[in-house]
Amino acid sequence: MVTKAIERVVREYGGLEFEKEGICPECLQVLPVTEASVWNWTQVIDAARCGRNKMRCKRAHLVDTHLIGGFKVSIRQSMVGPVPQIEAEGEGEASTSVVPVKDLIGSVVLVALWDGKQKKILRVGSGFVVDNKRGLIVTASHTLIRMEGEGLFGEYYYGSKSAKALIGVIPKPQDSENNDPEVSQKASTAVFRYFAEIVADDVDNMDACVLKIKTKLEKDIEDDCAIASVQENPLLDKKDFKKEKIYKLPVTIQAEVEEEVRVLGFNQGGEGLFTPGSTLNRVVDFAKGYVVRSFKVEESTRQGRRTFIPRHELVVNAPTIGGHSGGPCVNKLGEVVGILSRADPADKGRCYLVPTSEFMPLVEEAKKPKNNFDDLF
After folding, report:
1. What percent of the chain lies above the pLDDT cut of 90?
2. Can you give the residue range of the structural domain that contains 78?
3. H-type helices in the chain, by residue range?
4. Which end of the chain has fewer CB atoms within 10 angstroms, the N or the C?
């Protein structure tokens, strides 16, 4: 309860980064906090799930897992053998620390291909904030980059010289000036606030790219028809982004078969169908499923031309729909395991993800300074 309260408080401060870690109680008895051994929180949870009652720190202390994580590990028998159950210490019921969707949607963004000349949105997808200090967003490449067709493959913004990425974010309650009774609806509805540009991609091997927020609209926009008349202000450095209330999602490269996951995004199917003359859906939702398998392509033949052949993908059973593309797929802890690339054409309940291990090198590339003014602060 204490750690959850601390997390809620810390998340309210824009620009702050924090990590949840387990700390060795043996180290704390003889060493300053800064010198004590720690474990990534995912390691602690995984140890409990695997039924490991003991964990050894870097200083060779063997510690009870429940003393690190605040829960106890019990084993129950199932059809597939012993299954570890994580229980909160002092409570009699199982708990896997599931982070609710409402605590995650503040980092999910609406990504649109905006054509300044035509003054309209051409394509729509989803994404998530991966670095709030630099304003970096991960999304599906196919929303903004042409990934088919000879000669035009890899074309940014589908060849439009007046196009760029328009970003919609979900405001925090205190950011909204309208305090009407429909709080739940407004709390999950995005407004257009930023423009971004593509800074890293690898369309030959993955359906993922990294965007960097470049400018902020003078005011939040709900009707995309009014975007053309709103002035933009540049966001130059980390000091500017610190003032913005942008929240990021943690990522993990661990994804287990049968692990429960949720795909978050802005559904543009059904009542939110986005086609010329239809309404754009700005309300975030999610699809729940589980990881089926992971596969890699060791060697590919491109026959002398550029084409998209995914190098590594995760298969997930989840009923996703148009508009979710690029949206983060998170585990129970709220960690991103991948982003949605596409649905299976033969089975709409099956979809494919770009794993975090694939797109995180692009994020690291995007963090590198491109000119003398980047990363000065």
Report:
1. 47
2. 2-88
3. 2-11, 25-30, 41-49, 65-69, 183-186, 238-243, 356-367
4. N
Domain count, the chain: 3
The helices-and-strands tally (H runs, E runs) of the chain is 7, 19
DSSP secondary structure of 270-303? GGG--STTSPPP-B-EEEEEEEEEEEE-S----T
The verdict on residue 334 lying in a domain is: yes
User: What is the value of pTM for the model shown?
Assistant: 0.74
Residue 92 has pLDDT above 60, yes or no: no
pLDDT in tens, 168-216: 999 976 444 444 545 556 788 999 999 999 999 999 999 999 999 999 9
Report how far residue 375's alpha carbon sits from residue 366's, in angstroms, rounded to the nearest whole number.
11
How far is 377 from 133, CA to CA, in rounded Å?
10
Q: How far is CA 276 from CA 123, 190, 229, in A?
A: 10, 20, 21
Beta bridge partner(s), residue 63: 55
My answer on whether 67 and 145 are in the same domain is no
The residue behind tokens 């012993």 is 82
Residue (of 22, 100, 105, 28) closest to 66 by Cα position: 22
